[in-house]
# Entry
Amino acid sequence: MKSQLSKLEALQVIDSRGNPTVAVRATLTDGAVGSASVPSGASTGQFEAIELRDTKDKAFGGKGVQQAVRNVVTEIAQTLSGADLSDQRAVDKAMLALDGTANKQRLGANAILGTSLAIAHAVAASRKMDLYEHLGGSSALTLPVPLVNVINGGAHANNSLDIQEFMIVPHGAKTFSEAMRMAAEVFKKLGSLLKDDGFETAVGDEGGYAPRLESQEQAFEYLMRAIERAGYQPGQQISLALDVASSELVKESAQGFTYKFEKSGDPKSYSAADLVELYATWATKYPIVSIEDGVSENDWDGWKTLTKHLGAKMQLVGDDLFVTNTERLRRGIEEQAANSILIKLNQIGTLTETLDAIAMASEAGFTSVISHRSGETGDTTIADLAVATNAGQIKTGSMCRGERVEKYNRLLWIEAKLGSRARYTSPF
# Structure
């Protein structure tokens, strides 16, 4: 039986940074309803699909999305009228053809993605299934290990830390719910330690603390102390992960790529080889299992150097490097640049293209880390996506801020529904 569209609605709503974003609601002819809202990044890769913003309008400082909203309820709705929406790939392909650009700049990746996800949710509801079941079937059983961002820096916080995210990874837990407890306990201990030492415990965009520490190394030391104070063994039960977001640190010139940690006042200029040496040094002192965007999105030689020297020891995640794009991922696989991909739905702009990137990574032996954005909503699609694809890892912020915790709570509900079938295994 075909799933056909009765009504497609869209609205400009507000994300967690106070900026407009697109929300879409699809109603099928059988009455089933699905909705989705689209996140937005602060630290974005230059190769990402394009959000359509009302740049000529003074409202919201030119960040409005009313044109994207109109595109949903006019052109996209008309194109999908009468189509069989149960074929997600055909739905997404029709929108891509309608847009007609390589980066979705005409209709807007925000308009296309909102529609893509709303329809997936509606069809799942029509089938009386959760989204993870609809997408993954009976094999969707793996709850992801969370990479929990507990100290924010870089573009996500107004402090002195250049590294964008310091994360704890409770891979030694037996269940996802236990991992949540472990992460929450460490997060609370970290806050107490920072407060006792006179540091601010206000949080950044993704819910992690944003103290004005003296160095990156001081952040590592606080994390180690917090893990131990919470009663856990660093490296055995809880390890560390970093998002360097080095595209924010890079200086490109005719002579090549150099990197500077300017927020912390480090006067040194680093080459990619210098960064590899720095990361290797940190890894001997601290249990680091994953580094995201260790070098810039354009520094392919640097990525190959990084992977050659550290790829056998830890997960090296391409975010800005790959932008959830199979063409860029294919190059990374061929050139042995990175061994993991960060998956962000709005970087590529449709559900099926996202699923294709995850499948390509898996076939190549790369891991996939399902991820939120710094500008989020209460939408929990990525939680279902992580389970549907058995990705095994998720990155969705800290143990506070509702738009972050909503994803964790959704995973707790999925774990409860799966019961004894639920799996939680460490990829490290």
Remarks:
- The CA atoms of residues 49 and 102 lie 8 Å apart.
- DSSP finds 13 helices and 14 strands in the chain.
- Residues 176-196 form the longest helix (21 residues).
